[in-house]
Amino acid sequence: MVWKQMMGYIPVNLANILVSFGSILILTRVLDAAEYGRYALVFVALQMAHTLLFTWMEAAMERFHARAEREGNLRDHLYTLYRTAVTVCLAGLLLFMVAIYLAPIGNDMKTILAFALASTAVQTLVRMGMEAHKAANRITRYSISYSAQMTISFTIGILLIVLTPLREAGPFAGLLIGNLLVLCFDLPFMLKRMKGGTYQPDKTKAYLLYGLPICFSLLLEYALSTSDRFVIAAMLGEADVGRYSAGYGLANRSIDVLFVWIGLAVTPMLVRTLETAGEAECIEQLKHYGATLLLVTMPAAVGLGLVAQPASVLLGEPVREAGAQIIPWIVGAGVVNGMISYYIQRAFMLGGKTKMLPITMIAPMVLNLGLNIVMLPKFGLMGAVYATIISYGFGLVLAFIVARRYFPLPVPIEAFLKTSFACAVMAGVVMAVPVPEGINPFVEIGIKGIVGASVYALVAFATNAADCRTLVSALAARLKANKTAEV
Q: Domain for residue 355, yes or no?
């Protein structure tokens, strides 16, 4: 069931890959290190603003959709959330624009921030529809909306950088235009589904109480992974922010797109199962979900770490050298962070204890900031890397201990051990592959990638890591049955 759901989200994952790597590949070439550093800082500020004000509504849309459908008040659910979203977006945008106007910063930075914050207000309305589609299992419509928003925004943003004086403001202007176009396509569809609905103030309060802890948790989580940019800017300068962000982005996004892909497919299914089939069935699905995350993300992280040097050619020259140093470390940290965000935190959501989410993130965030302040002067950019690894590890242990108090989160220990073994064998074989000096980096990546993937697949299949052999056997049996039926 997990893999079937995942197949429906392949277009979303492809769009994520295209935009994630395309942004790094192109932006690190058309912007200098300082411009890319400013872009990275504003992007972090944009994500934090969106998380603080708007994410609680998106979380409530997904979590309570199945319940509203079961209770027969889906129209009220949709209308209440959309009306609240419009109100909050307008008020938030006005507040942001006044703050930007009064801020003691240059006009160029004000322009970047204005486009960025306007785009996130519109994006909220787009995401409300996307969360509804996902919760209702309208996978095709979700995939079309999401993929269109990502690719249109990315394409227009790059064109604005190249053809206009907007420079680092271009991607945010593109994001604004892309969201507006998708909203024009999706909003009429959603208006039909909420027609006749009435505003329910009590539901707004319930949604806020559910979603606000998630907002604070995500904000702290995002601060844990990105606040080091501001410390780097203060202690080392904007150019070093650009160098660090490029390497970090290439490594982290390579892993994050996999977590997002699997999480998109499974999270709505877990909620529906809990609401309709009960806790025991949900726990069984959750265990399989955790095993699948490990099966897919761990080899990706090890593989990227093994080809970090040739893979750094994807980065622009001004940030390439630092990126090659950072990548092998950050891919490992990305797996740890992904397991916190996309696995452990599901226990708080399913257990209805989202108010505990922020508590598990405060200590790791404070630790990360403190370690950055101590380590940056001594180790340079690698100090930020070391701080990230230590704080993520601490956050994983803390979140797991607290989560188990509120929901019986299964531990996929067998899947972890088997997957680790398969990754170790893969790494040993790949490192033994003879590669001629001066070989084209992409050829080197291709050779090592094919060898590594083949070895990992064989070992994982032989050990039945995460029940992959069982899955393959079931698929083979189904195909055989279909062929027999056709005959």
A: yes
Please measure the distance between the N-terminal and C-terminal CA atoms of the chain and give it in whole angstroms. 27
Query: What's residue 485's pLDDT?
Result: 55
CA–CA separation, 300 and 288 (whole Å): 19
CA-CA distances (angstroms) from residue 261 to 164, 176, 296, 322, 422?
A: 34, 24, 11, 28, 22
Two tokens, residue 56? 């609680």
What are the helix (H) ranges across 227-278? 228-235, 238-276
Question: d(Cα 103, Cα 66) in Å, to the nearest integer?
Answer: 43
DSSP 8-state symbol, 136 = T
Helix or strand holding residue 426 (H, E)? helix 413-432
431 plus 379 within the same structural domain: no
The residue with tokens 């990546």 is 445
Which amino acid is it at 456?
Y
Domain membership flag for residue 487 = no
Residue with tokens 């160029």: 108
Answer with the one of 383, 411, 439 that is the final residue of a domain: 411
Structural domain total, the chain: 2
Q: Which two tokens stand for residue 415?
A: 């899947």
Q: What is the pLDDT of residues 267-291, one digit of tens each?
A: 777 877 877 777 788 888 888 888 9
| Residue 429 and residue 407 share a domain | no
pLDDT digits (tens, 9 = 90+) for 94-137: 988 898 888 888 888 888 889 998 998 899 999 999 999 988 88
- Residue with token string 């769009």: 15
